Amino acid sequence: MSFEVPDELRYLESHEWTTSGDTVRVGVSDFAQDELGDVVFVELPEVGDAVTAGEAFGVVESIKAVSDLYAPVSGEVVAVNEALFDRPELVNEDPYGDGWMLEVDATEGGEADDLLDAGEYDAQIA
Question: What is the distance between the alpha carbons of residues 37 and 123, in angstroms, rounded to a whole number?
Fold first, then answer.
């Protein structure tokens, strides 16, 4: 099976993705949403909370499993996708678009450079 792995994103081995820049968007990969199955609940931090690269920031619950979500970068949460509270299935339907989870002011600039690029991530999930 082939999964969407956008070239412009960076990836954690735990299947979270991030955009690049000072304020980044974070979500889970197409592979992750497929492995999870139907997402029924998402627990996210609040705006103003701090997240630390490599540490859990929330939980995603599906009909098959409950999984921690890990921050790809450190910084302050500046937005959460509140649509997911009413429609967690957006994670399945559009993991790189409407299913995004957080926006983070990435204080430690450059952390995303240490993450997997699309080719490396694609090889990991192959």
Answer: 22
Long-range Cβ contact pairs of 121-124 (< 8 A, separation 24 or more): 121/5, 121/11, 121/29, 122/3, 122/5, 124/13
97, 88, 98, 100: which is closest to 39 by C-alpha?
88
Task: Please provide the average confidence, as pLDDT, over all residues in the chain.
Answer: 95
Contact 105, 23 (CB under 8 A): yes
Instruction: Quickly count: other Cβ atoms within 10 Å of residue 33's Cβ.
Output: 25
**Is the pLDDT at 115 greater than 90, yes or no?**
yes
pTM over 0.90: yes
pLDDT exceeds cutoff 80 at 108 = no
pLDDT of residue 111: 83
Ordered structural domains, the chain, with CATH: 10-112 (2.40.50.100)
Segment (H or E) for 44: none
